[in-house]
Each structure stands twice: as structure tokens, then as C-alpha cells.
Amino acid sequence: MTAFAPASGQTPPPDSVHPRESSPEAPTSISRLNETIRGFVSNWGSVWVEGEITAWNLRGGHVFGRLKDATGDALISFRLWSSTLQRLPDDLRVGNRVVACVKSDYFMKSGDFTFTVSAMRHTGLGDQLARLEQLRAQLRREGLFDESRKKRLPFLPHVIGLITGERSDAEKDVHRNAELRWPQVRFRTAHVAVQGERCVPETLAALATLDADPEVDVIVIARGGGDPQTLLGFSDERLLRAVAATSTPIVSAIGHENDHPLLDDVADLRASTPTDAAKKVVPDVAEQRALVQQLRARARTRLTQRIAHDVAQLEQLRTRPVLRAPEGMLVARSHELFALTSRGRDVVTRQVYEGERRVAQLQASLAALSPGATLARGYAIAHLEGGVIVREATQAPAGAAVVVTVAEGSFAARSDGPVAEADVS
Questions:
Q1: Which of 108, 202, 291, 365 is the most buried (most CB within 10 A)?
Q2: C-alpha dihedral over 278, 183, 204, 198, to 10 degrees?
């Protein structure tokens, strides 16, 4: 390229100066610099690289992501057009180790440098993802993911414990949406680092403090999503076991639907976003008021129906003859009682008469058979000593003492012995 030769005392136009020939007196333009960089970059052609996917964001059918080197010290950004995405495996996701054919691209207008992917395939899971899967399997075997051990959230918590980053969008989302649903909601917020080395120890300390607070009914751990590298703290085994051991229900609101740290599985409830957490932790006051009105209307209707039914039943009972003229039942019963009484009196009278007649007959029979009646006719009964009745003359020899009983008393006598029949006559 031929250098521009300015006239004496003149500054050449920036577009005419090649970047290699620029100087304070003859600077080149940004457009000329970017054009030169693009021409240089476009000569690189396509290269195959190996790395781990650390970001995979789908927008408008295209993918914008990042690849991390195995050493973890280098990253590149890439874009993947929808036409290319249709030819790739469907199971590509964050954490996969892949090889990709990339071509460098430099955008002159913005000065951004990126790579366009024309092919990509699996080479295996990343080391970090493999370790997380091993930990996931271990915790599942220990029962930390079981629904039976998860605690139920209170219907309306008195105080909500919130663990999140200071002045973060996640904190604003939780506060705003919770207060919109229930204006009187109260928070006790602990600010922590939500990524990096301080994330786990600060979250553990905040968790212990809020769990020990008797006023806190539920704890929300919130973050606004991110790639797996920044979310590693929320898959740390120390934090997971501490969450499982708390007595206060824990809600995990770490990221969006595509983000899935292990805290989501251990927590008592997973919320897809901080906004979703606010909706699940507190009820909607408008919905509750509508529900109360609905229940009151339902109760009023049921009560009105019950009263109307009972009134109809009462009217039906009142129209029955026994209630319309209750004295009629008493009159009928009094006539029946009078008839039964008369019948009873007649039966008793006949039985008494029959009894008296029977007694008279027995008395007559008894009088006829009584010894007294016999004695009254002039007969007597002779008794020896000891009360033996004299039935034969030989029982009373001469000189024997005899007691003679007549109709009116008894007297003593002494036997002269048996007498001949001729003498008696």
C-alpha cells in the first residue's frame, strides 16, 4: 500500500492512513483500524477446538455461548446460527465437553470479536459436571431428595428470611412481588456473596442465623441465574447438608428454568426464579379475599337452603291431623282408655264373684267334713293318754283314764271296760 504524502503543513485524512503508518500527526481512523483487523482475522480460516460449554443461551433461534479450555484459564465466545443448530445433536447443554469447528469473526461496527460455529459434537461430560452428577447420585441414595423429608411451607409466614446478594435484582424481585401479593409481608434479609470463594461460607453463616431466629417461618435463597461456573457454590456439599438439616423450610430460587444446581433438589421447594419464589411463599391477598367472599356466599346459600328446607318440613308436619287438632288424639285415647277400664272392671267383678262362690263351696265342703259338725250331732271322741283316739272298746279296759271330747268342750272319764252289745242296746 502506498503511503499518503501530505502537503507541507497539512494533516492527511484519517481514512487514508494505514494503521501501521499512523502517528500522532497522522492518525488512522477507527473504521480503517477495524477494517484492517477484520481482514487480518478473516485470513485465519476455520479451526477445530476442544472445550467445555459454560454458557448456552438461545435467543431468536440462535445460540450465544462460551467455551472454556480444559485448564480453566481461557474462554472464547461463540455464536451458532439456527441453520447450523438444526444439524447438531439435540442434547447439547451446559457442562458438555465438545469439539467445535469455529471461524473467527470481527464486527467492524462494534469492535467485538467472536467465533461462529459450523460444527460441534460431544467429547464427554465436563469434569465439574461429572463430579456434580456423582454427588447428586450419592445424595439421592442418602434420601436427601426424598419428598417425605421435605417440610411444608406455612400458608402465611410471619417473617420471610431472604439470603441473596446485596442490591441484587433477585432481592428486588422477591420484595416487589411478595409485597404486591401481601402488602404486610415482613423480611429479614442476609446479604451474601452469591458466587466465588465467599459464597458458601457466607451462605452457611446466614442460613444458621435465620434458622435460629424463631420469628422466621421460611427461608428463601435467591440468585438471578447464571452459568454453571458461577452457580457451583449452590451445589457445594457443605451447603446442601446444612440445608437438609435446617428446621425451617427452605425455598431455592437460584436461577431460571435451565439452571439446576443441586440445592434445587435438596430444598423443600424449588422456585424457577426469584419472582416465582415470592409467588409461592406468600398468598395473593386479592385471591384470598375473593375466596373468602366465595366461601361466604356459598355458606349463605347453603344456610338459606337449609332453613327453607326445614321450614317446608315444619309446615308439612303442621298440616298433619295430629298436629292440626292434637285434642282429637287425646279424645280417641280417652275413649279407648274408658273402654279398657270398663272391661277391666267387669273382668275383675266376675273374677271376685267367682272367687266368693268358690270360697262358699269350699266352706260348705269343709263344714260337712269337719269333726265339729259330727260332734254337734251328739257324737263324741274318746282319747287315751298320749292323744290316741279310741277306736275299739278293747283299747279302753276297765280303769283306763279317758278324755271325751264333745261339741262343746272335753271331760275326763274312767272306763269300766268293754260292755256287751246287749247291754248297750
A1: 202
A2: 80
Q: How many residues does the chain have?
A: 425
Q: What is the C-alpha separation between 94 and 229, in angstroms, rounded?
A: 10
Give per-10-residue mean pLDDT for the chain (425 aa). Answer: 46 63 73 75 79 90 89 85 86 83 80 84 66 88 93 93 93 93 93 90 96 96 77 90 96 75 93 91 89 93 94 86 76 86 92 92 81 78 83 83 84 81 56
| Partners of 253 in the β-ladder | 222
Strands 216-222, 250-253: parallel, antiparallel or unpaired by DSSP? parallel
Q: What is the dihedral of CA 182, 183, 186, 190, to 10 degrees?
A: 90
For residue 274, give Cα distances in angstroms to 17, 111, 258, 287: 53, 35, 14, 21
| pTM, to two decimals | 0.48
Please write the tens of the pLDDT for every residue from 146-180: 999 999 999 999 999 999 999 899 999 999 999 99
Distance CA 311, CA 307 (A): 6
Q: Within 13 A of 60's CA, how many CA atoms are on the CB side?
A: 4
In degrees and rounded to multiples of 5, residue 113 shows phi and psi of -120, 130
* Per-residue cell: 253: 430460587
388 Cβ neighbours under 8 A, 6+ residues apart: 395
C-alpha distances (whole Å) from 284 to each of 176, 272, 273 are 13, 18, 17
